[in-house]
ABC-type antimicrobial peptide transport system, permease component
Amino acid sequence: MIKNILTQIWNQRRTNSWLFAELVIVFVLLWFCVDVLYGLVFARLQSKGYDQEHVYKITVKSREDQFVKMQDADSVSHFWWKPLSEVIKSFKQYPGVESVCTSFGTDAYSNNIMFQGYHVDGDTSNVLISNIRYVDAEYMHTFRIPMLHSIHKNLKDEDWNAINDVTPAIVSAELADSLWGTTNVIGKRFSDYYSPDLHYRVIAVSVPQKNSDYNRYEPYIMTPYPERVYKMQAIPSIYIRVKADADNNDFSNRFIKTMSARIHIAPFYIFDIESMKYYKQLDDASQGVTQEVNNTMLMMSFFAFNVFLGLLGTFWFRTNSRRGEIAIRMAMGSSRKQTAVHFLAEGVLLLAIASLPAAIIDLNIWKADLTVTIHADATLFRLIITLIITFMLMAIITLIGIWIPSKRAMHILPAEALHEE
């Protein structure tokens, strides 16, 4: 059967040439779209290195009429940080809140990014630029950051203090590997490149970290707040983790309504509270990921519809022009089902032949590094998977496009068709 179909395709090569060219072109274009989506899905499925489920970000602001710029550290500590700590403490007492944490520096799903240079003591030739995040001890629990190696099973406030002018630090696997070539670096020391007197000691190595769902993994370091923070009138990012049974769609409204009425600690007030899912949507939109996915899906739909119409028209014409052939087949004992299968097999074989030059073109595009590699590397595995997915999509479209005329061919009466011939 296959040999007979291949012979027919060759004999009708002039008729098939335009359809063949269309299949090749659309296969290449569709593959490119599939490749873009693969990169996005691959990045999305990778763990971010933390769990933001049931986590909310609370925006606290200061009242302008009560704001007084303070010069000395004692005043800032007494009139700013002490009242702010009372505000944060009140959040912990809200029913359903599991934990509360604060941070400065690089935030998840945010354009607030802070970098710093680090090097192993004595080796200033190998300086690594890393994201830095100043956090309290509760941060790791709130975001449930898994550790590859750690000195402390459960990090406590007393573990998060400098000892002999050496600051404890949690580094990501990327930072550890870049500085020492391994992730088993517990107890290792390193220094701040721009502040040579600032030394760190690794107390834990976290799993790989990234700032958002579609970013690549980057070096990260988490350390306690430096002294200079407490000399500034700044408000850190505040996060709360809500117990799963207490989290629902109305939690934000109830929280801000209750806490706004309860908190009367000058000069602070609650401005807003939003889930991390909300910030993820904003981040996707700001990075253009949402638009990229929508545009790619729109192009894929256009290419698929184009192939569908081309196959539908071509095989509809073939059905009408080959009525005599179909009648003879059925007169010789072929069933209607066998006739339809013949048409479907012919279309799939034609697609399989067209996919060979299309795959060669895709291979050259891949070798030339013309694919989108913002979210994931252009590996050979990625090429093979995307080619298989593209062929399967094209095969489904081909079968749908041929089914309508082939179904029509199944109802041809042999006697009537032969009489017309």
User: Anything to note?
Assistant: Residues 2-46+288-420 form one domain. The radius of gyration is 32 Å.
